[in-house]
């Protein structure tokens, strides 16, 4: 059973603090190249583990988001600039880290005509130019439904196209700002239509008031648009101003949801209390590739 929200975080919500040389190296590199990571900006619980393993999720298009989602710790407001040299610096950092898989996300930039799609495309190309063998995953906003913005990203041929629905349909308007549940599904469907061979991915966070059957319905909705990869994690309230945690799910419940996802045909399901969208992302590429070749996903 889950713990009532009035009690302290359960024992299984534990963050391993690892701040050795690799962690410090990556932190110093990000500062020296004036780069941002979603690891820091969104206060990801896995930052210590991932940075210790020399992996990071780059956050492009600045550090100020034009939306104010009630679950997200990223700064919100009106951005004042667009850094056209950012793709080059991301590629230089990725090369220095000698990454095998690179994840690139962004703040929402509704102030830009293309939502920042061109910078996404240029970042993919820059990384490929510096690290030809490195796979590139992009976690994109919805671009307010702009099909041409999505096409710009897809034409750059990322190895994985990620867009998060975040929560179940009933709660979407309360949890997310401006984003629409059905529009997110449409984006994933369009991405498949543009480049059928590029795996798509999405994420659901639990603990904001959803029901079990609604989680399963969200899975079905994602599979209906041929989404390949699913990540499921526990929502953790980043500040008193954000949504409260309504429920803590147990590791056993996350394991059961993984089974449900694999049963529905996802090529890979990453499900656990501290799982976030890019957690173990490099393993998901391999799963998606094996799935395309006909190798069954494993529980």
UniProtKB/TrEMBL annotation:
It is found in: Cytoplasm. One of its GO terms (biological process) is protein lipoylation. Its EC number is 2.8.1.8. [4Fe-4S] cluster 2 binds at residues 65, 69, 72. Residues 277-299 are annotated as: Disordered. Residues 289-299 have a biased composition (Basic residues). Coiled coil: none annotated. Binds 2 [4Fe-4S] clusters per subunit. One cluster is coordinated with 3 cysteines and an exchangeable S-adenosyl-L-methionine. The keyword Metal-binding applies. Pathway: Protein modification; protein lipoylation via endogenous pathway; protein N(6)-(lipoyl)lysine from octanoyl-[acyl-carrier-protein]. [4Fe-4S] cluster 1 binds at residues 39, 44, 50, 278. One of its GO terms (molecular function) is 4 iron, 4 sulfur cluster binding. Pfam families: LIAS_N (PF16881), Radical_SAM (PF04055). GO terms for cellular component: cytoplasm. Its cofactor is [4Fe-4S] cluster. Keywords: 4Fe-4S, Cytoplasm, Iron, Iron-sulfur, Metal-binding, S-adenosyl-L-methionine, Transferase. Residues 51-267 form the Radical SAM core domain. It is an enzyme of class 2 (transferase). InterPro entries: Aldolase_TIM, Elp3/MiaA/NifB-like_rSAM, LIAS_N, Lipoyl_synth, rSAM, rSAM_sf. The keyword Iron-sulfur applies. Belongs to the radical SAM superfamily. Lipoyl synthase family. This is Lipoyl synthase. It comes from Fontibacillus phaseoli.
């Amino acid at each position: 059973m889950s713990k009532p929200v009035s009690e302290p975080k359960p024992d299984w919500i534990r963050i391993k603090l690892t701040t050795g040389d690799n962690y410090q190296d990556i932190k110093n590199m990000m500062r020296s190249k004036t780069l941002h990571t979603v690891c820091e900006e969104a206060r990801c619980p896995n930052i210590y583990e991932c940075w210790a393993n020399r992996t990071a999720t780059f956050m492009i298009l600045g550090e100020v988001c034009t939306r104010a989602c009630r679950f997200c710790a990223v700064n919100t407001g009106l951005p004042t600039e667009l850094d056209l040299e950012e793709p080059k610096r991301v590629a230089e950092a990725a090369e220095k880290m000698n990454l095998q898989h690179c994840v690139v996300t962004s703040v929402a930039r509704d102030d830009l005509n293309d939502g920042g799609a061109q910078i996404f495309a240029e970042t993919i190309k820059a990384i490929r130019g510096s690290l030809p063998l490195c796979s590139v995953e992009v976690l994109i906003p919805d671009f307010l439904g702009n099909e041409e913005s999505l096409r710009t990203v897809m034409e750059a041929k990322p190895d994985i196209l990620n867009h998060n629905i975040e929560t179940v349909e009933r709660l979407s308007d309360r949890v997310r700002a401006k984003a629409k549940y059905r529009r997110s599904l449409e984006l994933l469907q369009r991405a498949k239509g543009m480049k059928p061979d590029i795996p798509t991915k999405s994420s659901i966070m639990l603990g904001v008031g959803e029901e079990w059957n609604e989680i399963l319905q969200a899975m079905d909705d994602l599979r209906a648009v041929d989404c390949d990869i699913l990540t499921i994690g526990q929502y953790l309230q980043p500040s008193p101003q954000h949504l409260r945690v309504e429920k803590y799910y147990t590791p056993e419940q996350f394991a059961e949801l993984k089974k449900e996802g694999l049963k529905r045909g996802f090529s890979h399901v990453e499900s656990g209390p501290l799982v976030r969208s890019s957690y173990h992302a490099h393993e998901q590429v391999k799963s998606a590739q094996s799935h395309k070749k006909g190798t069954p996903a494993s529980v």
